[in-house]
Write a structure and sequence with these properties.
The protein has helices at 33-36, 44-66, 85-102, 111-117, 169-179, 186-198, 204-213, 233-245, 249-278, 294-299, 301-307, 316-319, 323-333; strands at 2-7, 12-19, 23-31, 75-81, 106-110, 137-142, 147-154, 157-163, 283-287, 311-312, 336-337. By secondary structure, the protein is an alpha/beta fold. Strand 4 (75-81), helix 3 and strand 5 (106-110) form a beta-alpha-beta unit. The structure holds 5'-O-[(R)-(carboxyoxy)(hydroxy)phosphoryl]adenosine and zinc ion. This is tRNA N6-adenosine threonylcarbamoyltransferase.
Length: 353
């Protein structure tokens, strides 16, 4: 079954064509991140206007790459929330129009669940040879707007275990990057700054500098409590306070980046480990933009070594927003909707699968 997935919830415009929920034939993403750089955060109006401009070229390019003809596409899928209303409208109205004009079934996908299903996708590999996550699954979603832990008993059978009570993980990466004078989006920039002190092949003088600078720690909020909730605003405030006290902020950026990453990843790993243990998970899957972080990917191996279960990450390009993950989720969830009735839902909740 060939599904065309459309994603436009935030500042990306994506169209992916996926066979049987696994095999990517095309996955085209256009990001307006550069346009938001000077504001250090997404400006919804700018994002939506850019999406109106690029949605047709993005779709066209996806169809060209997949070498698919319209009559080969079996269904259209679209992320209908959560997200910015203007952005969502572009994808949802485009999907409805295509479904009506091409006479194809339309399915709607919760964007957050799309991030989880990025773990079912394979790129240019024979899907049958690749292991899939096994149920019950504990899924961690870490994106710019969300941090959630979910228990998946089967496709479509989910329970929300907990989530952030204040800032999302990606949002804190972005805010800390701003305080450190790094660019937007901040996750990538923090990772690069930290690697200046932690890369395996550092020259000896850089190693000595690292040893002398990495002598402090930031707090790990809620790491030991018995909920599956998170709170990151205190960690953010700690970084801000630390930065306001040091005289040479520029010289300390890599050290602050290392210690901030340490703290936030430690909390994410420990809570996910405890959820996987509590619910006897057979697999852990991680999704969302923050899942692109190398240090986080590395640290999650502790779950594998302690519980003996596999931890799945999407390939880096599939961790951030894209259309293929929406097509994959649509294949497994099959939530068909009336093309005349579907509405974008900016505040879509986790339980609205
Ligand atoms: O999932 P996503 O593409 O969009 C949302 O649904 O929000 O996630 C974007 C978030 C941003 O906050 C960005 O800073 C973060 O993912 N991110 C990263 C990395 N790459 C992107 N965070 C940490 N390390 C990265 N390498
Ligand atoms: Zn996302």
């Amino acid at each position: 079954m060939l599904i065309l997935g459309i994603e436009s919830t935030c500042d990306e415009t994506g169209a992916g064509i996926v066979r049987d929920g696994r095999r990517i034939l095309a996955n085209v993403v256009s990001s307006s991140a550069k346009l938001h750089q000077k504001y250090q955060g997404v400006v919804p109006e700018i994002a939506a206007r850019e999406q109106v401009r690029v949605i047709v070229p993005v779709l066209n390019e996806a169809l060209r790459q997949a070498q698919s003809k319209l009559n080969e596409i079996d269904a259209i899928a679209v992320a209908y929330g959560p997200g910015f209303v203007g952005s969502l409208l572009v994808g949802v109205e485009t999907a409805k129009t295509l479904a009506l004009v091409w006479k194809k079934p339309l399915t709607c996908v919760n964007h957050l669940i799309g991030h989880v299903y990025a773990n079912w996708l394979t790129v240019n590999r024979e899907p049958k040879t690749v292991n899939l996550p096994q149920f019950p699954i504990v899924a961690l979603i870490v994106s710019g707007g969300h941090t959630d832990l979910i228990l998946m008993k089967d496709h479509g059978k989910y329970g929300w275990l907990g989530g952030t009570r204040d800032d999302a993980a990606g949002e804190v990466f972005d805010k800390v990057a701003r305080v450190l004078g790094l660019g937007y989006p901040g996750g990538d920039e923090i990772e690069r700054a930290a690697q200046q002190l932690t890369a395996d092949n550092l020259p000896s003088d850089a190693k000595a500098l690292a040893g002398s600078q990495l002598t402090f720690n930031f707090p790990r909020p809620m790491i030991g409590d018995n909920t599956f909730d998170f709170s990151f605003s205190g960690l953010k405030t700690s970084v801000v306070n630390y930065v306001s006290q040091v005289s040479d902020v520029c010289g300390q950026v890599p050290a602050i980046a290392v210690k901030f990453q340490d703290a936030i990843v430690d909390v994410l790993v420990k809570k996910t480990l405890r959820a996987a243990e509590t619910y006897s998970a057979k697999s852990v899957v991680v999704g969302g933009g923050v899942a692109a972080n190398e240090y986080l990917r590395d640290q999650f191996s502790v779950i594998n070594s302690q519980l003996g279960i596999p931890v799945f990450f999407p390939s880096k390009g599939l961790a951030t927003d894209n259309g293929a993950m929406i097509a994959a989720a649509a294949f497994y969830l099959k939530k068909r909707v009336d093309s005349l009735k579907l509405q974008a839902d900016p505040g879509l909740n986790f339980n609205d699968i």
